[in-house]
Amino acid sequence: MGIRMWGERDVRRAGAAVLLAAAAGLIARMIIAANSPGPADVRIFRGFAEAITVYGPVRIYEHPLPGLPVYNHPPLAGWMLMGLDSLTGLGFSFSTLIRIPASAADFCCALLVFEIVRRRAAPRTAMLCGIGVAVSPVLIATSGYHGNTDAVAIAFALAAAHLLADRKAPLAAGVAAALSISVKFIPVVVIPALFVAALRGGRPVLVRFAAGFAGLGALVWGPALVTVPLDLERNVLEYAGGSYRLWGLVRFADVIGLPESVITFMQGGGHFLVVLVCVAAGIRLAWLRPAQLPGVVALTLGLLLLLSTASGLQYLTWAAAGMFVLGAAEGFTYSAVVGLVAVLGYSGRSAVRWSEPVLYLGAAGWLVLAAGLATGLRRVLAAAGPAHPSTETAPRAQLENAP
């Protein structure tokens, strides 16, 4: 009893430390947001918000937006932007408001990572991982300065895995999964893995998860799918990212001088092959280790970034929190290296024009990501037992019920 109580006290103290770090991290992000104009994306989001106020969050997909890039955000992002634009009428700064969702998501994600890790490691390790998310340089730079919605989507994806595997709340997990792809479509690669893990939990778990996912999905996506299906498909579902060659495989292909046709294919139709590879990997891992679903989601999102041809600095957040789910060493190493990439990249002339040192650091970050995914994969596969955590073996149940 004494050992157990001491363990519980350790968890409470570790959780309090993570909460303090997450609060400090949120304050730091909001100070940056309130005192910096941010990159060009902040102004682009302001243009999107003004257009959505005119056309609505559904019809926005069918209207050309002169002077703005293609509006490639899922429907829930449109409602968010319309709400933020209405707040500017009350005197709030849009450039600050647009960075609140990602900053708040980092706050929640620090606590979420702590909850995930403490079920699989010592409280001290969980505390380090939670604090790591809170103070991660790459997350502070992208959420506090850039302010895109990637961090929000990743937080919902990890929450879905945690709710399904650890909390035994499949209905809420389905809602969280639908929210993740309704903010940013990137987590679509983990949705099949979540369904496989739900299937491994039994029919009732699968039905509840599917009900939560379908119900929220119909509510958010339904109006656009019915009203402007082709425009939604073109702008959101088929969006392949930019054409910059700053990160990962496309950067290496450019450096070694591969033909333009190859690079064009990589950035065009080839990105669908990358998505299929990531989906297949997630499905396989979820089938083998459904109890390690948060790690599976982290690995799948990290693999997507590893193989992606997209080069935006905000995309580095896809793996930031997940690397801490895989391990403290992996998380801190990745956050330190790519955090330097983000800070230097945002400090340069343009976030999409990296200097030579930043390009080399980006290559180093890619290698760190690859190494972290390899060690994380070994750790997930080495975890005990393929059984789903929402199921309990008969012998254990019999022993607990025995006199």
From TrEMBL:
Official protein name in the record: Glycosyltransferase family 39 protein
GO molecular function: glycosyltransferase activity
Organism: Streptomyces castrisilvae
Record field: transmembrane: 126-145, 171-198, 205-226, 268-288, 295-316, 322-346, 358-377
InterPro entries tied to this protein: RgtA/B/C-like
EC number: 2.4.-.-
Pfam entry (one): PMT_2
Glycosyltransferase RgtA/B/C/D-like domain segment(s): 72-219
Keywords tagged on the record: Glycosyltransferase, Membrane, Transferase, Transmembrane, Transmembrane helix
